[in-house]
Amino acid sequence: MENQLTSYLTQLLERSANQKGLDWLSTQIEKIRTEAIPSKFFLAFSQASRYFKKEKLEVSNDLIIQADQLVSGFQPEFWDQLQTARTVLMLSYPQEKKPWFTAMNQLFETADMKEHQALFAALPLMPFQEELIPRAIDGLRTNISLVFDAIALNNPFPEKYFPEANWNQMVLKAIFMQRPLYRIQGLEERRNPTLAAIARDFAHERWAAGRAVMPEIWRLVSPFVNEQFFEDLKKTLATKDELQIKAALLTLRESAYLPAKELLKAYPDQVATLDMDAIAWESIGLEFQRTRV
Amino acid sequence: MYIDPHIHVVSRTTDDYEAMQKAGIVAVIEPAFWLGQPRTEVGSFKDYFSTLVGWERFRASQFGIVHYCTMGLNSKEANNEALAEQVMELLPLYVGKEGVVAIGEIGYDDQTEAEDKFYRLQLELAKEVDLPVLIHTPHRDKRKGTIRSMNVSEEHGLDPKMVIVDHNNEETVKEVLDRGYYAGFTIYPHTKMGSERMVEIVRHYGPERIIVNSAADWGISDPLAVPKTADLMRKSGIPEEHIKLVTYQNALTAFGQSGQMDERDWLDAAPLDQTKKMSGNSVLRGGQTPRVEGKTDIVEN
Ligand SMILES: [Zn+2]
């Protein structure tokens, strides 16, 4: 598996990186594979920043599809060249469990910001994933958005492995940090009543402080709309904020709660527009990030 | 634009960062040093080094300042030999990291045998990874310690132009410059240099290879020492190009030899926008208004 991933990632790098970097990388891969000397591996991992830029990869549609086939949910279109090169180096280290963990633990514990970003984003490509769950959960305690994003956004790892409590903490922290929720994989699939209630409490806290509520949070609520949530959504509809109203309508439309269906009849045009928009939540999230964050 | 090439910003407040940014400081270098009391576990060093390349770098960026650091085992703590050995094993993990612009600050404190041993080992490390060296010269017996630092560095074959000898005074500057080294001057109230003396040194020796810094830390010190000294030089009639050399360019040239420090890091940086970089609970806490800088925005002064 790691060989397939390595050749796929190298292919991606070949489209964007320069030859000097690629040559350096292939030398390092060979050394790391055959010698497996931790100190040399760490040095190469750090020094990749001297050879690769922090520019986004150029990824074609075909390659995006291929990525998902290799590892479900893997989205290299959000990766930069440097983290891709570092991931290749990481995958080159022999995957014999005990020494692998010794080396990786040290790497995680001594990493700088960009190295953390590379490591956490690469969790779904690593071996021994179930044993890496505590590492991922611990990583989310960061206050550095770059590192938080590497775990929480466009990463299939949390959806696949996080227990519900940790999942909920991650989503709440993303709300708190105003990160784009639509980029969390499995956001809809892993909705749960506890998280809906947390979202609601958060909204009330914001209202009490006279602040606006991130519209995307209502997405967490739609399967659980009841009398209480319904009141909140009506309150949201009453704001003069188009983005809030759109989010509330979308939530009501997705809900099976009967009074919600009744209420929607008062908004025929807006509902028709939403019906046409297959990625309405993403549009709301994008617009919010663009204009409010 | 100024660079403060020696400041321990982990000990400074966000008010300091704001004032530094307003005063024109675009980049800082934070040398790894001791923390006022000795560490007793190697893990404390590990977390400190990680802070220098992680959280502190992020924190500085929130205020529009580019943060670099140097890595090394300081001379005071070299005297705990058992611990020092472990720190030496740790250093290779950090010296190759992005934004590490030198090995430092290393050198002598009490000029003991242990200090000498670890100073030499780190000179070898610097050669191996091709990084400049930042030398901390001792407070006590300074002149002798400074000369000894240079002698030993030459014994290990280091090129003087790769070495910044710091905390100079009127007694050490001539020999340091004559032997081809960069000479750092620390404007630090009471113990090191004052701004007026600094002006006279630049007037006397000219601006070549002279570097001004604050070494501000947890003691009574001034994070604005570099811009303040520049202002005093201006008032004292030091030419503008000389001021630029000693408060900006020389530091960039010296530490830029690492390949890890580039003017584009701050010149091409996106305009400071805390709303983008800040993420709710990072440095700005709830209710604070983020500062936004740009063509259409007014930055309060
Ligand atoms: Zn210092």
TrEMBL record, chain A:
<protein>
    <recommendedName>
        <fullName>3-methyladenine DNA glycosylase AlkC</fullName>
    </recommendedName>
</protein>
<dbReference type="InterPro" id="IPR047715">
    <property type="entry name" value="EboA_dom"/>
</dbReference>
Automatic annotation (TrEMBL), chain B:
<protein>
    <recommendedName>
        <fullName>TatD DNase family protein</fullName>
    </recommendedName>
</protein>
<keyword id="KW-0479">Metal-binding</keyword>
<keyword id="KW-0378">Hydrolase</keyword>
<dbReference type="GO" id="GO:0046872">
    <property type="term" value="F:metal ion binding"/>
</dbReference>
<feature type="compositionally biased region" description="Basic and acidic residues">
    <location>
        <begin position="292"/>
        <end position="301"/>
    </location>
</feature>
<dbReference type="GO" id="GO:0016788">
    <property type="term" value="F:hydrolase activity, acting on ester bonds"/>
</dbReference>
<comment type="similarity">
    <text>Belongs to the metallo-dependent hydrolases superfamily.</text>
</comment>
<dbReference type="InterPro" id="IPR012022">
    <property type="entry name" value="UCP005295"/>
</dbReference>
<dbReference type="InterPro" id="IPR001130">
    <property type="entry name" value="TatD-like"/>
</dbReference>
<dbReference type="InterPro" id="IPR032466">
    <property type="entry name" value="Metal_Hydrolase"/>
</dbReference>
<dbReference type="Pfam" id="PF01026">
    <property type="entry name" value="TatD_DNase"/>
</dbReference>
<feature type="region of interest" description="Disordered">
    <location>
        <begin position="277"/>
        <end position="301"/>
    </location>
</feature>
